Amino acid sequence: MSRMRLMLSFFAVWFILGFNTVYAEDRALIIGLGTYAKSDANLPGLDPTLTVIQEIVFGRLGFQSGQVQVITNEQVTSAGIQNAISEWLIRGTTANDRAFLYYYGHGAQIKDDNGDEPDGCDESLYTYEGNFLRDDVLTRLVSSIPAKEVLFMLDSCFSGGAYRSLTQDTEEATAMTPSALSIVCGKAANLGQRPADNISPIDERSGRVLGMTAAGENEVGYTSNKGSWFSRALLGALKSTSEPISFVQMRDLMASTMREFAGQRYISPVPQLFGPPQWLTRTLSSFGRVDSIPPPVLPTPPTPPVNPVLPTPPANPAPPTPPVNPTPPTPPVNPAPPYNGDPNAASNNNDLLDRILNRSAFRVEVRSTKTTLRVGEKIVIDVRSSKSGYLNLFDLGPDGKLYLLFPNKFNQLNQVIADETISLPSSRVGNFSITAAEPTGRSRVLALITTYNVNLYDATLGALIAQFKVFGGQDAGSVGRSLITTPDSNAADVKQHGAGQALIDVVK
Asked: I need a surface site. Which of 378, 432, 472, 484 has the fewest CB within 10 A?
């Protein structure tokens, strides 16, 4: 599905802490689907999920009961969804209002029927009666909402396939593929029992819409009898601190919580964040008011008298006595720039890897032959990417130095193919060796796949030690600038990267 279409799948989050102003025609539409006409498609957790969403809508966003419409189960047909959006949000809001839209249920990927999708797949919602509501229809509906602020919350599989993974308990997750949802266009990349550390990128080209999806490209979402992972992580992020947090920080907290739900057995879906760049680093209390906060009102100076009487100066005014040791004024402290997650702002190599993971747009899996190594032992690293691109493989040791394991002196050709497992070392990439060395402690092995050509071995950064490049902590920002480019909003092929990591303990 094209990135433009992703704007439709916003899991919209527009909850404002401590901001209870209610606009005249604000409208919220909550759509929940847990019981289907074909029972093998049923989903658990609808009631606790909708309880969380209504807590956000009423308690955080400040909507009143008359401004919120909820439709569930047999009401959620293809026609029912379209009618509710048209009547409640399109006809019910004006250009001065807010609109909030939430959907919980199956998401599906089906074959494109009009040639407008580069990947040949249409994203869709799987409705109660067994129909597919395509993204083309949703695009027209959402773009027709006249409200100045539109939020779309999509809590479902995003572009993985025509099914949603289920958990009856957060420790036992299973992927369900009911026969009613056998039409698929692609395979979900996060099905299987593998840990994950990826977080989505920020798409800054969605105009007046800010939102989030429950999963990334080619991923399934998860739910349980306790409610959807996404809604629970969302509420957890809001309750995790008494201080206001930005949307970027909120997304990072949610992703971390969802990885905890997944544990070491399953691959967590990646929440996706979208929105205008000036909104993303704002606190929740200021969201939606970025362009409408009035300037401060200055006090009116007093009117001087018509004939002011000037005081008579003393005959011989004594000069003021200067202080013995005058204290120079303290220079003003420049406030730190808001956190935006950009890799080029990394303060050290550990921070750099975190930011690369936090901007990951697609699935990259990393696994090692061992998770604990003795000094001198050799290791093989396997990397698999859900997209084709260019591989840079890093190792960050306990000493803070960042080693570029691949490309290296033996092989500078780092292009890889989607869904191909690359073993390093191997005859495919070169007959070098990777050996555990001191200092002992935990190492982070991170694989970065870029859809554009990046080869840090050829870069002028860092120092060449034996067959590997090494980067010090002072190089973190420069490495970040070399790795990550800002997507051109007018480009047909948006530049992306994906990342994954494995943790390895080195002992004596």
From this structure: 378
* Structural domain ending residue among the three candidates 286, 318, 353: 286
Residue 162, class by beta-carbon neighbours within 10 Å (0-12 exposed, 13-18 middle, 19+ buried)? buried
Q: Which stretch of DSSP H or E encloses residue 237?
A: helix 229-239
| Claim to verify: residue 281 and residue 367 sit in the same structural domain | no
Residue 300 lies in a domain: no
Whether 163 shows a pLDDT value over 50: the answer reads: no
- Examine residue 102 and state whether it is found in any structural domain, yes or no: yes
Separation of first and last alpha carbons in the chain: 49
Closest CA to 500 of 214, 218, 196, 188: 196
Residue 354 lies in a domain: no
Could you tell me if residue 340 is inside a domain? no
In the structure encoding, which two tokens stand for residue 318, read together?
A: 């004594």
Whether residues 19 and 166 share a domain: the answer is yes
pLDDT recorded at residue 315: 62
What does the angle CA 33 – CA 272 – CA 248 come to, to the nearest 5 degrees? 125
Q: Are residues 233 and 93 both part of a single domain? A: yes
Query: What percent of the chain stands above pLDDT 90?
Result: 32
In terms of domains, do 54 and 149 share one? yes
For residue 83, the enclosing domain spans 3-286
For residue 256, what pLDDT band results from cuts at 50, 70 and 90? confident
* Of 286, 315, 347, the domain-final residue: 286
pLDDT in tens, 43-99: 999 999 999 999 988 988 888 989 999 999 999 999 999 999 999 999 999 988 988
Strands (E), 198-293: 202-203, 211-213, 222-224, 227-228, 272-274
Looking at the structure of the chain, the number of domains it has is 2
Residue 457: its pLDDT value, please?
92
Q: How far apart are CA 451 and CA 443, in angstroms?
A: 26
126 near 177, Cβ under 8 Å? no
Residues near 448 by beta carbon (within 8 Å), at least 6 away in sequence: 356, 364, 391, 392, 393, 394, 454, 483, 497, 498, 499
User: Which residues fall within 8 angstroms of residue 498, CB to CB, at 6 or more apart?
Assistant: 198, 360, 361, 362, 363, 364, 385, 386, 387, 389, 448, 449
Residues 75, 160 within the same domain: yes
pLDDT tens digits along 234-253? 999 988 888 878 888 888 88
Shared-domain flag, residues 238 and 372: no
Residue-wise pLDDT for 295-340, tens only, equals 444 445 555 555 555 555 556 666 666 666 666 666 666 665 666 7
What pLDDT, in 10s, does the model give residues 6-32?
344 333 333 333 334 444 478 999 999
CA angle 400, 404, 407 (to 5 degrees): 175
Give yes or no for a contact between 149 and 28, defined as CB atoms under 8 angstroms apart.
Answer: no
